[in-house]
Amino acid sequence: LRFLTSFEWVPIEYWKNGILLAYKLEEVDQVLLLVQIHDMKTLKLQVRGLDCGSKIASLVGDVGTLINDCLDVPVKVYIPCAHCFRAGQEPILFSQRECESAIAAGKPSVFCPKGTRPVLIQEMAPDLSMATFKGVKINYDELTIHESIGAGAFAKVYRSVWRDQEVA
Fold it and tell me: What is the Cα–Cα distance from 49 to 33, expressed in whole angstroms?
């Protein structure tokens, strides 16, 4: 609870296996976060409200890192289908890895088996699709790639130079 309140989440109600929090109570359009513990193996975070993706994206990453590092437990993140929500159905859950792989392959959407058309990833996880990114798109020809300096889950990181600046 202390961890969540440090991110401006205010507890509203709690019970044995869960807690309901609001993001900044003074806002008119609140974002609500429901945290539930299922069978002591599953932590379920549900969020509702306007612009909720930006409010929860870093929180999910931080909670995942905390669980993985402190408890040495693998963390799996699932993203509910926006199509199912609009249809008022129990949502299909896409794995974060599935959505990230689609974005990495240049596909802006995933297919919901309950729907008749693809669902845009930016509707479900704007942080993954970088829909809210306001930075500069770098022309690949302007980059000079040097040696590998690390690797993540989906890519290698290289020391590079762009416009006479060292970048990774």
Answer: 9
Six-digit token string for 137: 């798109």
Query: Confidence band (pLDDT; 50, 70, 90) for 43?
Result: confident
Q: What is the pLDDT of residue 62?
A: 72
pLDDT at 58: 65
Q: Residue range 90-113: average pLDDT?
A: 88
Is 102's pLDDT higher than 70? yes
Higher confidence at residue 80 or residue 71?
80
HEC readout, the chain: CHHHHCCCEEEEEEECCEEEEEECCCCCCCEEEEEEEECCCEEEEEEECCCHHHHHHHHHHHHHHHHHHHHCCCCCCEEECHHHHHHCCCCCEEEHHHHHHHHHCCCCEEECCCCCCEEEHHHHCHHHHCCCCCCCCCCHHHEEEEEEEEECCCCEEEEEEECCEEEC
Q: Buried b vs exposed e over 128-164: b needs ≥16 C-beta within 10 Å?
A: bbeeeeeeeeeeeeeeeeeeeeeeeeeeeeeebeeee
Residue listed under structure tokens 């792989």 = 101
